[in-house]
Amino acid sequence: MKTLASNIDLNAARASFKQRRFLNMPLAGLLAWACVGVGGIFLEPPMAKTWLLFIATGSIVYIAMLLSKVTGDPFFHKEKNPFDALFFHCIIMALVVYSIAIPFFMQDYRSLPMSIGILTGLMWLPFSWIVEHWVGSFHTLLRTLLITLAWFLFPDQSFVLIPAIIVGVYLVSIWGLEMRWRTLQPPSATTIIKQQP
C-alpha cells in the first residue's frame, strides 16, 4: 500500500514539474556558448579561448538565475519536488565529467569544446524522460552526433564550429520547449462572440 501511495505522490510531483516552462537554463546555455563561439573567432591565444569556455560554461547556472527575473519562470521553487532533486543530480553529473574533459584537453586543447559540449548536453536525456517530451532526447542525440562529426572533420575550427552547432541545437530545443509549454496551458478565458446575421 505504501508503494502505491509513493507512486501516486511521484506522479503528482512529475505532473507539477512538467507544468514549468524551462527556458532559463537553455537560454543561459545559448548565451554562454554564443560567447564561446565569438571568442573562438576573435581570440588568438589558445589559453584565452579555453579560459573563456571554462568561465562561460561554468556560469550557465548563474546566468539562468538572472534570466529567471526576465522570463518569469522562477529558478528556485518553494515547493519540494523530487524531480528538482533528480535534475540537480544531473547537473552535478555533468560537472563531475569535467574530469574526463580536462586530461583530454591537456593533450589537445582543441578537444575542449567537443568534450564539454557533449558532456554538458547529457543532462537533457533524463530531462526528456521526466517531462515525457521529445525535446531532451533530440537535444542530447543531435548535439552529440553533430559535435562528434565536427570534431572529426574540422578539429581546428572546434572553438567556432562546435559552439555554433550547440547554439543551433539550443534554438530548436527552446522552440520545442516553448511549444510544449503552450500546449499545456488552458484555453484562453476570452470567448469569441459570434456576430449575429
* Helical amount: over 70%
| Coarse morphology | elongated
Arithmetic mean pLDDT:
87
Rounded radius of gyration (Å): 20 Å
* Strand segment count: 0
Strand content: under 5%
Helix and strand content put the structural class at mainly alpha
What is the helix/strand order? HHHHHHHHHH
* Residue runs with pLDDT of under 50 for 5 or more positions: 189-197
Number of DSSP helices?
10
Report the sheet with the most strands, covering strand number, pairing sense and barrel closure: none
Structure description:
The protein is built from ten helices and no strands. By secondary structure, the chain is mainly α. Helices cover 76% and strands 0% of the residues. Helix 6 (98-107) runs antiparallel to helix 7, helix 7 runs parallel beside helix 10 (158-184) and helix 9 (134-153) packs antiparallel against helix 10 (158-184). The model is unreliable at 189-197 (pLDDT under 50). It is elongated, with a radius of gyration of 20 Å. The longest helix is centred in the last third of the chain and has 27 residues, at 158-184. The protein has helices at residues 2-18, 24-42, 46-58, 60-71, 82-96, 98-107, 112-119, 124-131, 134-153, 158-184.
